[in-house]
Amino acid sequence: MAQKGNAAELGTENIRKLLVQYAVPAIIAMTASSLYNMVDSIFIGHGVGPLAISGLAITFPLMNLAAAFGSLVGVGASTLISVKLGQKDYLTAQQILGNVVSLNVIIGVIFTVITLLFLDPILYFFGASEATIPYARDYMITILLGNVVTHMYLGLNSVLRSAGHPQKAMIATILTVVINTILDPLFIYTFNMGIRGAAVATILAQIISLCWLIRIFCNKEELLHFQKGIYRLKGVLVENIIGIGMAPFLMNMASCFIVILINKGLKLYDGDLAIGAFGIVNRIVYLFVMIVMGLNQGMQPIAGYNFGAQQYHRVNRVMQLTVIAATIVTTSGFLVGELIPELAVSAFTTDRHLIDLSADGLRVVVMFFPIIGFQMVTSNFFQSIGMAKKAIILSLSRQVLILIPCLLILPLFWGAKGIWFSMPISDALASLIAGVMLYKQFQTFKRHHAAQQQ
C-alpha cells in the first residue's frame, strides 16, 4: 500500500530531507496554533480590556491540566505507533488508534464533569480575584464543555502525523487557526459575547477540524483507519501509551503547578495586572517554544521508527539536526525579547502600565533562551525513542527540581523580580543536566552501531 511506503521511507530516506518533510508542516501547524492563542489574547485585550487578559492568564493552569491529560494519550500513542510501524507491526498500530479514541472520550468526560463541579474554587486557588474571576469563569465553562472535542482533535492529529501524513496534520491545525481567527471578532464584537465569544470560536473551529480528521480515518485505503474491534481497551496498550505519555503528562502537570505559583506570587507582590503581564509574556515566548515543539514533532516519527528498526546512526543524525534548528529558533526569541520587547507586547494592549510590566518581564524570561531549545529537544528525543524514564527526569529537572524551589525562595528576597528571574535560572541549570544525559546516550548508540558493523 502507498501508505505503508510513507512510513517505510522513515528508515531509508535522507535524514535532512525527512526532517524538513516532517518538521516544516509541524512547525507551520504549531506556529499557527500559537498564533491562534495569541489572536485570542489580542482580541480579548483590545476588545474586552486589560483585566480580561489577567482573567485569561488565570485559566492557564487549568488549560495546562487539560493538556496534560490530552498529551498522556496523544503523545504516548503517536510515539508508540511510530515504533510499531518501524517494527512492521501494523495490527498493533491499528489497535492503538482505536484505543486513542476510547481513552480520549473516557478521560475527556471525567475531566470535564469534575472540573465544572468545582470551577470557582479551582480558579480562586489558581490566583483569581473578585475582579478577574468573571472573565476566567466565562472562558473556562465553554472550553470545558468542548473538552472531549479538544482531546480527540489533538489525539487524532498526533496519530495522523505518526502514520506518515505530516502535511494533512498541518492542514488540520491551520484549518482550526483560520476558522478561529475568523470567528473570534464575530463572536466577541458582533455578537457581543466578550471573552466567552473567544472560547466559543475556539471550540467551533476544533469541531470543524475534527470532522475533517474523522473523514480521513474513515478511509479504508489508509494504513491506519477506523474499523470494528479496535476500540476495546487493551491493558498492555493502555499501559504502554500511558507509560510513554507520562513524561509530557508530568511536564504539563508541573507547568500547571508552576503557573499557579507564578500567578499567586505576582498577585501578592505586584497585583492583578502583573498576572496579565505574565500572560502576555507567556504568549510571546510560547510562539518560539511551539516552533521548537514543531521540530520535535518532526523528529519524533523519524527517531521512533529508526530506533525501532535499530538504525542508531540515523537516530543520532536526526537528533543533531533538530538541536541545531531549535537553537536557531530560541536565539531568535532571545533577540526579540532583548531588543524590541515593548514593540512585541504592545500588540496585546494599549495600557501603558501593562506594557511596561510585560516588557520588563520578557527581557528577563528570555535571558538564557538560546540554550533552552537544546533542553526541549533532548527531553523529547528520549520520549520519541520510548525511554520514558529519562524523558521524565529531564522534564521534572527543570519544572520541579529547579523552578519550583526558585519560585518559592527567590521572591522572599527579590519580590516580583524573584519570580521572573526563576525562569531563566531553571533554563540554564536544566540544559546542563540534559547535556550530560544526552552525551551518555550518544556513547551507547555509538557502541551499538560499532557492534552492528562487526
TrEMBL record:
Protein localization: Cell membrane
Membrane-related topology note: Multi-pass membrane protein
A family per Pfam: MatE
InterPro entries linked to this entry: MATE_fam, MATE_MepA-like, MATE_MepA_subfamily, MdtK-like
Entry's transmembrane regions: 20-39, 51-75, 96-119, 139-157, 169-191, 197-217, 237-262, 274-295, 321-341, 361-382, 391-413, 419-439
Recorded GO CC terms: plasma membrane
Keywords per UniProt: Antibiotic resistance, Cell membrane, Membrane, Transmembrane, Transmembrane helix, Transport
GO molecular function: antiporter activity; xenobiotic transmembrane transporter activity
UniProt cross-references to CDD domains, sorted A to Z: MATE_MepA_like (cd13143)
Keyword Flavoprotein appears in the UniProt entry: no
Highest taxon of source: Bacteria
BP GO annotations: response to antibiotic
Major place of residence: membrane
Family classification: Belongs to the multi antimicrobial extrusion (MATE) (TC 2.A.66.1) family. MepA subfamily.
The protein, known as: Multidrug export protein MepA
